[in-house]
């Protein structure tokens, strides 16, 4: 059973009654404060940031999207459980199963070793780092096909691909076009 928590737009809007206990409230207030101060892309201002409870787990999630393609590229997930903090990419993109503690990309911190504020600061640093990673769309456009690959550029890490003929392709050479799809530049205020 999922219980969604209404999105808040500032610390002044967080109310104690929105959370199950003071530990979760402290974690969320600290996380929000730290990420807000570090998040130069202002992702938390958009609908791609949300929170919910599933069973006994409080989940904070950030979807990174290619808005032009209407596609979720990454689902960053922070689970605040009764015993630990877990952080990683949600493999389902739908938040329907627990993070896999055996996955080397999932980081776990035990509550017995850290304070709630320390855990929130660790989570804020992790998510801020992940939010700052550039994602590029590499496209190969020919007369006979169009192939697209999304790549996290700092690690040349493949995320997903599509092909106009649904054929796996190798050795394509240099892309016809490379476009940064995330982060989107923030319009300058006048």
How many strand elements? 10
Distance between the termini: 45 Å
Strand-residue fraction? 35-45%
Radius of gyration: 19 Å
| Number of helical regions | 2
Going across the biggest sheet, name each strand in turn.
1-2-3-4-5-6
Helix content: 10-25%
Helix and strand content put the structural class at alpha+beta
- Bulk shape: elongated
What's the average pLDDT?
83
Main β sheet profile: 6 strands, antiparallel
- Poorly predicted regions: 1-17
> What order do the SSEs take from the amino end to the carboxyl end, as H and E?
EHEEEEEHEEEE
List keywords for this structure.
10 strands, elongated, 4-stranded antiparallel β-sheet, disordered N terminus, 17% helix, 190 residues, 6-stranded antiparallel β-sheet, alpha+beta
Structure description:
The structure is a single chain. This protein is of the alpha+beta class and 190 residues long. The protein contains two helices and ten strands; from the N terminus they run E-H-E-E-E-E-E-H-E-E-E-E. The protein has helices at 22-38, 116-131; strands at 2-5, 49-54, 57-66, 71-80, 84-89, 107-110, 135-141, 146-152, 157-163, 177-182. The strands form two sheets. Strands 1-2-3-4-5-6 form a six-stranded antiparallel sheet, covered by helices on one side. Strands 9-8-7-10 form a four-stranded antiparallel sheet, with no helix packed on it. Strand 8 (146-152) and strand 9 form a beta hairpin. Helix 1 (22-38) packs parallel to helix 2 (116-131). The termini are far apart. Residues 1-17 have low confidence and may be disordered.
């Amino acid at each position: 059973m999922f219980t969604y928590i209404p999105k808040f737009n500032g610390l002044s809007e967080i109310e104690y009654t929105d959370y199950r206990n003071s530990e979760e409230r402290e974690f969320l207030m600290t996380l929000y404060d730290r990420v807000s101060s570090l998040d130069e892309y202002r992702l938390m201002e958009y609908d791609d940031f949300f929170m919910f409870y599933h069973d006994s787990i409080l989940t904070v999630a950030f979807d990174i999207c290619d808005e032009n393609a209407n596609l979720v590229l990454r689902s960053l997930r922070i689970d605040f459980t009764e015993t630990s903090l877990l952080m990683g990419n949600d493999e389902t993109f739908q938040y329907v199963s627990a993070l896999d503690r055996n996955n080397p990309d999932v980081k776990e911190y035990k509550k017995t070793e850290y304070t709630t504020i320390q855990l929130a600061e660790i989570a804020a640093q992790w998510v801020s780092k992940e939010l700052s990673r550039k994602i590029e769309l590499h496209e190969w456009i020919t007369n006979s096909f169009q192939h697209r690959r999304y790549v996290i550029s700092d690690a040349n890490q493949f995320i997903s691909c599509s092909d106009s003929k649904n054929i796996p392709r190798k050795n394509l050479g240099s892309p016809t076009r490379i476009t940064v799809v995330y982060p989107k530049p923030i319009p300058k205020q006048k």
